[in-house]
Amino acid sequence: MSHSSQTPADSPRDQSTPTPRQIRRWRRYLADEQAEGRLYRDLAERKRGEERQILLGLAAAEKRHEQHWRDLLGEHAQRLPAPSAHRVVLSWMARIFGSVFVLALAQRAEGESPYDTDSDATARMAADEAIHEEVVRALATRGREKLSGGFRAAVFGANDGLVSNLALIVGMGGTGVGPTVILLTGVAGLLAGALSMAAGEFVSVRSQRELLDATRPTQATLRAAPDLDLDHNELILVYRARGMSEGDAEHRALERLGVFDCDCNPELSHDPEEVADEHAIVGSAWTAAGSSFVFFAVGAIIPVIPYLLGAEGLTAVVVSCAMVGVALLGTGAVVGLLSGASPLKRGLRQLGIGLGAAAVTYLLGSVLGVTVA
């Protein structure tokens, strides 16, 4: 950031003669700021309206930060190094996948800005980065809400398929039964689990949408108002039941009865766009059911593959656990990306839960097998 007269908030915290180490760090900062600015501009090209303006505003802020490092670098601001690998991946994902995953990752990047502890950055730049994290968090939240229906069912359907069928197969393997029995058990678990998950998601999402419709205010007050008795009516009770204070409820009731002029169009109090947004967040019952069925089946088939290929005994169990482990790392990483958390930590957590469940069922199966024998 460059100004003819800098305020304390704008001034670098340390204006000593730059060292080679500082120059290298500033050049890296400048490359990263350029990469982030391009990222936000790339995302803005895919958006319209308010989101586009917000993203362009973030890009403009990164441009100010670029200028700060250019001013410090002077002649050293040429032939910059490549931006950090994290920024390169973000830029690539922005072009391929769009904004949802990218904004979740950008939220983490903004939250890990080094400017708070770097005396060569200004206090204002550090404050900017903190605000940028909140802006990106809000934009990412919009994307997460749009994915919350079918995508939620898909991710958790796949995870449930992986864990439940692996535990089922490994548990049966622990009993010492033949591979054919284990294979048939795995296929049965796949079909039963996928159908159960699909039915459960359908009922859950349909019930949630019906609940939203049942609790949303109707236009009964508007239709009934012309025929109500001015002195004896229950309009005040309607508005109090909706959460208004007694005074506000009385004033709204008198507006409906025509005693006071209302500066709003009462027909717009039931906003169809708001209804559509609520339903979009919940998602379609059929989409959730279909996603849950398909992805549960995909997850559940993975631990069965070794048995389909003819593996037996402990070898089949180990290969099945390894394949499921890789898949669990993937589903955990996806959940981590969307939640703005560490993909590695979420992946390891999913791995621990899945293999832990398999280990417990294998031990139980072993005990059961010995008992039956």
Q: What is the number of beta strands?
A: 0
Number of helical elements: 15
Helices and strands, in order, run as: HHHHHHHHHHHHHHH
Judged by helices, strands and strand pairing, the structural class is mainly alpha
Helix percentage: over 70%
Number of domains: 3
Mean pLDDT, nearest integer?
75
Share of β-strand residues: under 5%
Low-confidence stretches: 1-9, 265-282
Q: First CA to last CA: what distance? A: 78 Å
The biggest sheet, with number of strands, parallel, antiparallel or mixed sense and barrel status, is: none
Radius of gyration of CA atoms, rounded to a whole number: 29 Å
Shape, principal axes of CA atoms? flat
Describe the structure.
This protein is mainly alpha-helical. The protein folds into three domains: 20-146; 150-213 and 279-372, no CATH class; 217-269, no CATH class. Helix content is 74%, strand content 0%. The chain has 15 helices and no strands. Helix 2 (49-73) runs antiparallel to helix 5 and helix 4 packs antiparallel against helix 5. The termini are far apart. The relative contact order is 0.11.
Summarize the structure.
It is a multi-pass membrane protein. It contains 15 helices and no strands.
